[in-house]
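Protocol step 4 of 5: obtain the predicted structure for the target chain.
Materials: sequence only (see below). No template structures provided, no constraints applied. The aim of this step is simply to have a reference model before the mutagenesis design in step 5. Sequence pasted as it appears in the construct record:
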Amino acid sequence: MNCRKKFAKWFFRNRRNKITMLVTALLCIISVCLNFTGYALRSDSDTLVYAGENTDTINPVLDSHNELPNIIFSGLMKYNVSGKPVVDLAKSYTYDDSSLTYTFNLRQEVFWHDGKPFTSADVVFTYNKLTKDKTLSADILSNYQDISSVQATDEHTVRIVLSKYNTAMLDYFTIGILPKHLLEEQDIATTSFNQNPVGTGRYKFEKWDRAGGTISLVRNEKYYDKIPKIKKVIYKTVAVESTKALMLQSGEADLAWLNANYAKRFRGKTGFKNYDFKTADYRAISPDFRTDFWVKNKDSIGVLNYAIDKTSVIKSVLNNQGRIAYSPIQLNNTFGGNKAAAIYSYNLAKFAKEMQKLGWKKDSTGIYRRHGQKFHFTIQVRDYEEERVDIANVVSKQLKKAGVEMEIVLVTKFDWDAGYNGFLAGYAAEFDPDQSYQQFVTNGSSNTMKYSNPVIDDLLTKARHTKDVAKRKTLYSEFEIEFAKKPASVLIAYLHGNYVGISGLKGLDTTRVLGHHAVGVMWNIEDWTLSKK
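Step 4 output (structure tokens):
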């Protein structure tokens, strides 16, 4: 193996983030050479090393897009293989429709990772934070706005009363419960608990080595349910996508979510196995409706769909590991996928015709103008997310060909107050379609870009409070059509969840649909086994 030639070829193909990538590549070359001489860099056989995402917070209330809260904390409910809520910390529950009351009977002999007993007081504390703490800012708060009161009737019984029927409420009872004895006097947003979490889940937080970018967990030997077979989990906080692939190759990681092109390199490769999950994770151009450009031109968002060759994006950037997106809930088998909402196709002639109807005319440079304003807008893209950068670049070129300038601004962290006209977004509603409520309803807790549409508000609110499944399906079908006509974002593609693991890792179940950034892969980690021989 000529390491120098291989590195040179790789380096000039990947100029972005040169310093980080250079260091990683050198480590990779060293490890490959060591492996070649017979020295294995694999960690202990009872330790799973996962190349994960960057994170600075481990708290289920504040961080819903990360694997760690799912295995450190437990909720009253949890999702099963089919993505349906089933009991977890609650050993049983009842629902009284006349009083809109859920009564949860809690498991006994459950302990926090610090040894303190878990009780109903912890449940009351958590849900009061979600519903009564006016200082708390979190994406998920809209999910709990129909809760009117939470009361502990004894140490192992909790009553939660709703102000209105909410069909997705059981889903939202999956949120991880927080320990009252550690957080009662703390500010949830700033507490050091977020870097030293204590839960009741399958794995216990051990330490966070920030310099080394590793978070160490050990299995909870006193876990109330099935104790995992794998003793330890090392979570590597990795930003650059190419780094994850190099870590797998060099033996520094045992499992990673990779973009489609990096995952392709491991297909059929000795010592590795590819896992292809279905996800509800889509990419889209998300306009910031607070900015002057979209205040004046929001009528021209939907028409951009005609100018984007989404099939080409999927083929070139996603290596065919995805599908065209036309609705934010289209992959929901029960309520989504209304084909009548797929009203756009790649058609530059149609685009030109619709732009003319809207009053846009091309100037001497070939760019559309209206009322003296050029069709030019800026979008933020995080520089370390290679796949998103590539999607943005392809789409920008396609739009430029059609007469629209989409300027890409590379950032290390999204800044919602910098005045950019939007961002290259990723979202997912992998469970109940009511997950879209917080994002698209006016003033929803996750409505970052301040989209507002009274028709969407009405449809999503009615669907949330409707019991009849057929009626809900009708409402969501209407939502999909209205969204297509007056979109909150220009949907591009759904991504498959491409994971790669070493061949000695067994038990991953690809049945369940995963969420944003393919989160949820560890839903059955207690069934995984690991061998590094």
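Step 4 remarks: Residues 108 and 249 are 45 Å apart (CA to CA). Residues 1-41 form one domain.
Proceed to step 5.
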